[in-house]
Amino acid sequence: MTRLEELIGIRSVTGEETEAVECCRRWLEDAGADEIDRWDVDMATLERDPDYPGREVERDVVPVVAAKLVGDRPGPTVTLTGHVDTVPPGNKWTSDPFTPRRDGDRLYGLGACDMKGGVVVAVESFAAIARRGRDFAGELQIVLVPGEEDGGTGTLAAIRRGWGGDLVIITEPTSRAGSSQIVIAHGGALTFTIEISGRSAHASIAPEGENALDHFWLIHQALKDIEQSINAQETVDLMLALGTPYATNVGKVTGGVWSASVMEHLRAEVRMGVALNETIAAAEERVIREVLAKANADPWLADHPPTVTRTGGAFGSAAISGTHPLVTTLADAAAEVTGQRPANIGVPYGCDMALWQRVGKSTPLVYGPGDIRQAHAPDEWVSLEQVEVVTEVLIRACLDLLQPVMESG
């Protein structure tokens, strides 16, 4: 059984990652890491952190494992990182999501693409460089975390522990048309809960009540207006190429108590985009301000204002220069291995890149096996050939990056 098959066989839905983290710890011990750090962070401690990203799943602790190889001379710190948690499998799978299944080049299983394939790439790259000795400059780190799918608590825990450094490669899936690309920019996302009050009445005299659903449509239009406005203001070509980089989605709506009663209350859960040029705090303030301004123009909602509350996990946005040495070195390595230079791309979804950049003060990018279209999907799969190719690229790129800093003059 390969490492990827072993990891897929371990259930690690967000909030249940300890066994997967322990598996990775054993792999890093076998790899001969110079230092291994395995710890649990109390959730209450993270909740007090000013950069706490929120979460979707209740948990008591956050389990993390990290390790390092120390070169024989000074140089940069390069970090490989990924998350071991997965979303729940849903009920549309045609086989057991926790039993890895091969079909030609494809390996099926929950998390195969997002992102156990990437975790194994990071481990295999780390182990291969460990076997070569310590004839390099600086440090190679690996940080494997839980809690990415609901905000990034694991990465925040690692940063606060002192892990990370100059350059960070996140091995999330970045494949397009069968070849991994380099993500240098991504949007963010926030979840809001909006509650609207109506006034109940018997359905036979419904006009004497105030149906919360009727008032929701005005709020829904406000959300669409916000979406249009934030996308119209974008100027970065990589994000403009996505069409709608900052999408709005009303994912869940509940309301009412009885079919013969006018709906007196409605609750909606909404995902809103975070632009490249704004912080989570600025995006939160923008959405709340604009929704309430729209509501204030309606007589009923002006007297009974909706509540707009940020809930769940928060994903910040991030971007780095396409000419940064981290990007060009990785692209050079990919060209040498594959014969094709990867493109620099932007993506509309959030990941841990923002935390590494905004909180960890590192320069991060995303490059890994798998296509995002397979992520969170039934019968998720990853190409085994691509896992091998990306591993070879990362070994070469890390060795190229782990060079001494040359002093001028």
Q: Could you list some keywords that capture this structure?
A:
409 residues, alpha+beta, Aminopeptidase, Alpha-Beta Plaits, 4-stranded antiparallel sheet, 12 helices, 18 strands, 34% helix, 26% strand, elongated
Describe this structure as you would to a colleague.
The chain has about 400 residues and is of the alpha+beta class. It has two domains: about 5-185 and about 315-400, Zn peptidases (Aminopeptidase, 3-Layer(aba) Sandwich), CATH 3.40.630; about 190-315, Alpha-Beta Plaits. The chain has twelve helices and 18 strands. The chain has helices spanning about 5-10, 20-30, 45, 110-130, 155-160, 210-230, 235-240, 280-295, 300-305, 325-340, 355-360, 385-400; strands at about 35-40, 60-70, 75-85, 100-105, 105-110, 135-145, 165-170, 175, 180, 180-185, 190-195, 250-255, 265-275, 305-315, 320, 345, 365, 380-385. The strands form five sheets. Strands 1-2-6-3-7-17 form a six-stranded mixed β-sheet, with helices on both faces. Strands 12-13-11-14 form a four-stranded antiparallel β-sheet, covered by helices on one side. It is elongated, with a radius of gyration of 23 Å. The mean pLDDT is about 95.
User: What is Rg?
Assistant: 23 Å
What is the distance, rounded to the nearest whole angstrom, between the alpha carbons of the first and last residues? 53 Å
User: What order do the SSEs take from the amino end to the carboxyl end, as H and E?
Assistant: HHEHEEEEHEHEEEEEHHEEHHEEHEHEEH
Number of helices: 12
Q: In one word, what is the shape?
A: elongated
Strand content: 25-35%
CATH top level of the largest domain is Alpha Beta
Largest sheet: 6 strands, mixed
Strand order of the largest sheet: 1-2-6-3-7-17
| Average pLDDT, all residues | 96
Task: Please tally the β strands and state the result.
Answer: 18
The low-confidence runs, each spanning 5 or more residues with pLDDT under 50, are none
> What level of helicity do the residues show?
25-40%
